[in-house]
């Protein structure tokens, strides 16, 4: 009896030791709902980076425990999901959230501040998450202002001045809309028309009608993939030859699949990451290898690649934070980051949370491929 009790105590002790020899990071992502396909790719990118790190021995003698939850792109669920990760799971960091409005609500309720927890690599470039400065969110992507300025400058340089905006009617879309208007101001140009749709819906017909009233030469889309694709399909049917650009949160392959080749070909998309399809950069080759090993059969995508890089940035900071990283020590490690993630550079500072300004421009070509 005593021997069995001793074995039981030893077993419990080993179990506690195993649990303690983990560092927990958490992710709330839209795994269901209107952004599900993007959310699944985001979750996959984080997971393969974590699994690759654990397969290589973990960090500072610890394995990473990744807890991923579904918020359905719903703001209230984002808040409750985050509270669970902070309070129940005792996560030391959060990673890879989606939705400007969703994350803004975390700031409004001081969820991140009261927990003193960093959020790394949110899948949004919304200005409201960057200005005014907050110390909790570490961005690895350029902002929507950077993307919309790139689009506007390209249009104006080719003589296109009659520009409209199609946007999601929430904090995300309004941030992008404001970015377009800010980029137009130095050129003394105003929008000729605008049209919107409601979050978590796909009713874009009125937006098409509203935008066509302005007789635009080009439309900038601040929208997620499915509404953007349906908008492109309807708009090009009614206005062939119209130039359409989208910001980086859309999937070109899915726009092609939903809108069809005749409508989708030629749609421009700004990108905040290098191409995940080309193996010319070391980080891309490492990402593709991680996909083959930890998600065999899954194709590369911009969304999963972005969150793979985000997880690599977080893992690098965890290593520098020491063997028993706390939320506070991790924030110090993150804000002292000047990292070269196998060719992709990210730099933060005590008053600097925008780690990258990289913006590229691609175009949807035959078969939905991204052309540069």
UniProtKB/TrEMBL annotation:
Residues 23-350 form the Leucine-binding protein domain. SUPFAM superfamilies: Periplasmic binding protein-like I. Pfam families: Peripla_BP_6 (PF13458). CDD domains: PBP1_ABC_ligand_binding-like (cd06326). It comes from the Bacteria. Keywords: Signal. Residues 1-21 form the signal peptide. Belongs to the leucine-binding protein family. This is ABC transporter substrate-binding protein. It comes from Viridibacterium curvum.
């Amino acid at each position: 009896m005593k021997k069995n009790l001793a074995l039981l105590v030893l077993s419990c002790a080993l179990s506690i030791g195993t649990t303690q020899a983990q560092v927990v990071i958490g992710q709330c992502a839209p795994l269901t709902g209107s952004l599900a396909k993007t959310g699944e790719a985001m979750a996959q990118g984080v997971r393969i980076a974590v699994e690759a790190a654990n397969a290589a021995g973990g960090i500072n003698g610890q394995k990473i425990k990744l807890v991923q939850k579904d918020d359905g792109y719903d703001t209230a669920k984002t808040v409750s999901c985050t509270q669970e990760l902070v309070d129940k799971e005792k996560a030391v960091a959060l990673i890879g959230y989606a939705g400007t409005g969703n994350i803004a609500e975390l700031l409004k309720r001081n969820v991140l501040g009261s927990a003193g927890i960093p959020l790394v690599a949110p899948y949004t470039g919304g200005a409201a998450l960057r200005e005014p400065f907050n110390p909790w969110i570490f961005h690895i992507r350029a902002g929507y202002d950077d993307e919309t300025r790139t689009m506007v400058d390209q249009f104006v340089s080719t003589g296109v001045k009659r520009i409209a905006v199609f946007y999601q009617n929430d904090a995300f879309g309004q941030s992008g809309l404001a970015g377009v208007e800010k980029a137009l101001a130095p050129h003394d140009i105003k929008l000729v028309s605008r049209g919107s749709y409601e979050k978590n819906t796909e009713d874009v017909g009125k937006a098409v009608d509203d935008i066509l009233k302005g007789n635009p030469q080009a439309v900038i889309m601040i929208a997620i993939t499915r509404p953007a694709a349906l908008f492109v399909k309807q708009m090009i049917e009614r206005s062939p030859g119209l130039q359409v650009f989208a910001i980086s949160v859309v999937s070109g392959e899915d726009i092609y699949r939903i809108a069809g080749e005749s409508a989708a070909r030629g749609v421009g998309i700004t990108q905040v990451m290098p191409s995940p399809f080309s193996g010319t950069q070391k980080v891309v080759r490492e990402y593709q290898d991680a996909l083959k090993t930890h998600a065999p059969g899954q194709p590369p995508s911009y969304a999963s690649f972005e969150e793979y890089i985000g997880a690599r940035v977080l893992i690098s900071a965890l290593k520098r934070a020491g063997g028993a990283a706390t939320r506070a020590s991790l924030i110090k490690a993150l804000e002292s980051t000047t990292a070269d993630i196998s060719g992709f550079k990210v730099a933060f500072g005590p008053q600097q949370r925008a780690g990258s300004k990289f913006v590229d421009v691609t175009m949807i070509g035959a078969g939905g491929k991204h052309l540069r």
